[in-house]
Design a protein that fits this description.
Distance between the termini: 47 Å
Strand content: 15-25%
Order of helices and strands: HHEEHEEHEHHEHHEEH
CATH superfamily: Vaccinia Virus protein VP39
Mean pLDDT: 85
Shape: globular
Structural class: alpha/beta
CATH class: Alpha Beta
């Protein structure tokens, strides 16, 4: 698979269409996988026990937070329908305009979503708006623009982040990275990704069946235990990271003050 640079020309509307088309089809033929099946569960279980007010953005049918007591916001009607059937509080919405009140959550989860948004500044701002001071926030992002492939574009990605870029973007909005871990299930074989993209393009229904009934269960079975490191760990050769952050609004003001002072010199 040929590596290219992320497409800066894609509009918000185009990305919405791409993501809605791909994920509505994916979730329409999928079964909900409970959060306890994922390698994020040991940490999530600990954090959720201390957080009565919880939000997960864009979980699809792979939620990481407990179904009971969590507010889920997603674009996919197919995903929302199954979440509700399992008794979850699930509402339609986008990360750039969350249908939630200010300062209303103590635990916020936004995995595999920021790379899908053209205006990620609005996404970070919305996560900050709905987070209570001191809230725990979990985010994941793909790294290294030079690792971009056609598959990124096919599944609706807008970007990959430079490691220091994601640190700066989070700090700008008051999020301090406390711990990080290597994350994700993407195969390293470019030939396998090429084959997957070809099947999804020309035999979508059959490809979705194989993904949901065979590949996803295999991926779950062979997940590696997350190894948490302080701050942002070494990211060389790392495709994706999950970040455990703390929302400290004062840190955003401090960052802004530092930038302002630098400009005045």
């Amino acid at each position: 698979m040929i590596s290219t640079r992320p497409p800066e020309h894609r509009s918000h509307e185009e990305l919405i269409r791409t993501n809605r088309g791909f994920y509505e089809s994916l979730w329409s033929g999928a079964r909900l996988v409970g959060p306890e099946r994922f390698n994020t569960w040991p940490l999530v279980r600990e954090l959720a026990a201390k957080s009565a007010r919880r939000l997960e953005v864009a979980p699809g049918l792979r939620p990481r937070l407990p179904l009971d007591g969590t507010c889920f916001v997603d674009l996919s009607h197919a995903a929302l329908l199954q979440l509700r059937r399992r008794g979850a509080n699930a509402v339609h919405g986008l990360i750039g305009a969350l249908p939630c009140a200010d300062n209303s959550f103590d635990l916020v989860c936004a995995l595999d979503i920021l790379e899908h948004v053209v205006d990620d500044d609005s996404a970070f701002a919305e996560l900050a708006r709905v987070s209570a001071p001191g809230a725990n926030v979990l985010v994941s992002v793909p790294l290294h623009p030079e690792a971009w492939t056609a598959f990124d574009e096919f599944v609706g990605h807008c970007r990959r982040y430079e490691p220091q870029q994601i640190v700066a973007r989070l700090a700008q909005h008051g999020f301090v990275i406390e711990h990080s871990a290597i994350y994700g299930m993407q195969p390293k074989s470019s030939r396998l990704l090429d084959l997957g993209q070809s099947y999804l393009t020309h035999h979508r229904e059959r490809a979705m069946w194989w993904y949901n009934r065979v590949l996803m269960p295999i991926g779950l079975r062979f997940q590696k235990t997350l190894k948490w490191r302080d701050g942002l760990s070494d990211t060389e050769g790392v495709d994706e990271v999950v970040l455990r952050c703390r929302f400290l609004p004062s840190s955003a003001r401090s960052t802004a003050d530092c930038r302002s002072a630098t400009r005045r010199r």
